[in-house]
Design a protein that fits this description.
Layout (H helix, E strand, L loop, with lengths): L3 E3 L2 H8 L12 H18 L2 E9 L12 E8 L3 H4 L3 E3 L3 H9 L3 E3 L4 H6 L1 H7 L6 E8 L2 E11 L7 H29 L12 H18 L3 E8 L2 H8 L1 H18 L5 E6 L2 E7 L3 H16 L15 E7 H4 L6 H21 L5 E3 L58
Parallel strand pairs: 11-12
Antiparallel strand pairs: 1-3, 2-3, 2-7, 3-4, 5-6, 6-7, 8-10, 8-11, 9-10
Helix pairs in contact: 1-2, 2-7, 8-13, 9-10, 10-11
Length: 417
């Protein structure tokens, strides 16, 4: 059996999280790698071929009513298969494109010049000239999500009708097996996911933040937190209704998950507030990312599939361990302080006109760490309750560049939306 290669686990996760999106699949990566290798190994055992590959679309491309424009090879064997993994193909070109677009399996001798041109890069990378192809769709539910492709039947000029039928049956097994894997992941993710947005929930966020602070201190590295609040979101609910408002938050969750870098942790903090943990990021990198998110949100039309075309802006606050949090006796205190500083910076962004990124002021002796009750909210829709790290009077941070001294808000004053 030839060597089978797959995408790195952190990249592979993107293509397999179709019902629950996540930044990592650390507990499941070995199983997924093994599972994909097993699929190609069995396919080659049933129908021996010179090479083979599994193509999947990126599920995030379909969220905003856009058809996926590319298919990516996530696992492959034959030739230098490491060169094939990660290769992208237009989802409407060649045999693979026809299988994906139509949902029907096909076999071809690749006599058409169009097909030859489509597979030029694949041939150059693998060193294998394509003579015959067999492609079958990979289907989840009622949606085609990819293609299993075999290239060049060993010992024969083409794939037979019987082999075509066999691989169609095998494709059904693949689809069911992938669904089972996703269902297993989904069941374990439910406890730490927000049902509406698919991002992590606030309870998991607090646990993960303390864990990442512990890791940062052990590695002598930095850690950043971005606090994001949508501007005037109540007007969306008032104008379009709460159902459309919920759908907008759902699409925003998908957008945030697709825009954050690998290793970042995005969570819904409550209502239309979101937090993003950036392990290893300094204040400059965190501010740059926040500005990228701000631009992505502002340029997206939400609910485009129903012609609502909702536009949003967001106010964001940025804080880091090294710049904004003094030493403390425990990670809970440091987590509380980091949340409070990022939240205060976000509040200042609201106060100064919204739709902007604000960095918290640097830590000072005049701004000691406050101690809060250790109650982690169970209701992510509860916007008014005190949460760990958030008091009724968040300190205000200045816009880029940082302000000189933090100020106090009036206790009980309503936060601008």
């Amino acid at each position: 059996m030839p060597s089978i290669e797959t995408l790195p686990p952190e990249e592979l996760a993107i293509f397999l999280m179709r019902y629950r999106r996540g930044e990592t699949l650390d507990r499941f990566e070995p199983r997924l790698d093994y599972f994909l290798r097993e699929i190609l190994s069995k396919a080659n055992e049933f129908v021996p071929s010179e090479s083979g590959a599994i193509f999947l679309d990126d599920p995030r491309a379909k969220v905003f009513g856009r058809r996926s424009s590319q298919l990516t090879i996530i696992a492959a064997f034959g030739g230098p298969s490491t060169q094939l993994v990660g290769l992208k193909l237009n989802s409407e070109d060649g045999v693979v494109g026809r299988v994906y677009s139509s949902g029907r399996s096909t076999r071809s001798n690749v006599a058409e010049e169009l097909d030859r041109e489509c597979y030029r890069e694949q041939e150059e990378r693998s060193g294998i000239k394509t003579r015959s192809l067999l492609g079958v769709p990979v289907i989840l539910g009622n949606s085609v999500c990819g293609v299993l492709q075999l290239v060049n039947r060993l010992g024969h000029d083409s794939y037979s009708e019987e082999e075509h039928t066999l691989m169609e049956i095998f494709a059904g097994y693949i689809s069911s097996s992938i669904q089972n894997v996703l269902d297993g992941i989904r069941a374990k993710e439910l406890a730490r996911r927000d049902d509406l947005t698919g991002l992590f929930n606030d309870r998991y966020f607090h646990l993960r933040l303390r864990e990442e602070i512990r890791r940062a201190e052990g590695a002598s590295s930095d850690l950043a937190l971005v606090f994001l609040d949508l501007d005037h979101f109540k007007e969306i609910n008032d104008r379009h209704g709460h159902l459309e408002g919920s759908r907008t938050l759902h699409e925003l969750g998908i957008l945030l998950d697709s825009e954050i870098p690998p290793g970042a942790i995005a969570a819904r903090y409550g209502g239309d507030e979101f937090v993003i943990i950036l392990p290893g990021a300094n204040v400059l990198r965190a501010a740059e990312l926040a500005q990228q998110l701000q631009k992505a949100i502002g340029s997206t039309h939400f609910l485009a599939d129903v012609d609502a075309r909702i536009s949003l802006t967001a106010s964001m606050g940025v804080a880091t361990l090294s710049d904004h949090v003094p030493p403390a006796d425990n990670n809970q205190q440091r987590a509380n302080a980091l949340i409070r500083m990022a939240d205060g910076a976000m509040y200042r962004a609201k106060a100064e006109g919204r739709n902007r990124v604000v960095v918290a002021p640097p830590k000072t002796k005049e701004y000691p760490i406050a101690t809060f009750s250790r109650r982690e909210p169970s209701d992510a829709t509860d916007r008014g309750t005190a949460q760990p790290g958030r008091g009724p009077d968040p300190r205000i941070a200045d816009d880029l560049p940082r302000a000189a001294d933090p100020l106090r808000d009036n206790p009980g004053e309503r936060r601008p939306r």
